[in-house]
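Need tokens for this chain, all 124 residues.
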Amino acid sequence: MQYFDSFFLVFIGGGLGSLVRFLIGLVLRGIENARIPWSTLVANGIACFVLGAVMGLHLSGQMTDERRLLLGTGFCGGLSTFSTFIAENLGLYHSGHTDLMLFNTAISLIVGLICLFLGLKMTL
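Here are the structure tokens for all 124 residues:
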């Protein structure tokens, strides 16, 4: 595979993942006032699940390198949002909600690990 092909696949996948991330934010906008950044949790959970499935399919030889780049590197990279997760946690901390910051951190790690594991288990 040529470098240009790889770059293009990651570019397209990343754009699609970013678009899905934006749509999740629009759909969940109404519950974002609950102080927990639900749209980031949902986006990261979905990205972890998809990445787990991509990993499982690739490890079992059922997914090409091209699809892995498109879906794993591109789509999941565009969908997941670690920088937003950190910024939202910092916002919770600065607004005096250390308890919510710790809860958000813990639930995000737990959800991410469970989703990655489920995606992996479904494909292996």
